[in-house]
Amino acid sequence: MNLDRIRAAVREKLDSGDLPPEKCLITWFGPGSGQLCVVCERVIAAADIECECEHPRGGLMRFHQACFAAWDEARQDMAPA
Ligand SMILES: [Zn+2]
Question: How many other CB atoms are there within 10 angstroms of residue 31's CB atom?
Fold first, then answer.
């Protein structure tokens, strides 16, 4: 999955409300645990860096490192100035 596709998926999910615009309360980075990434919906393999986010709306979201970075960037673009 290249960065353009990741960014497109992030925008789509922010627009549709599948991804929230608020930032995480806490984030952890570690090796993948075989869970699905909330952005690209692919497995985060043990060889990948997984980012876990505890979100203010509740629940834990899991991202590939690149998917998390794309979301974090797009989220800040959407925030009111
Ligand atoms: Zn991903």
Answer: 11
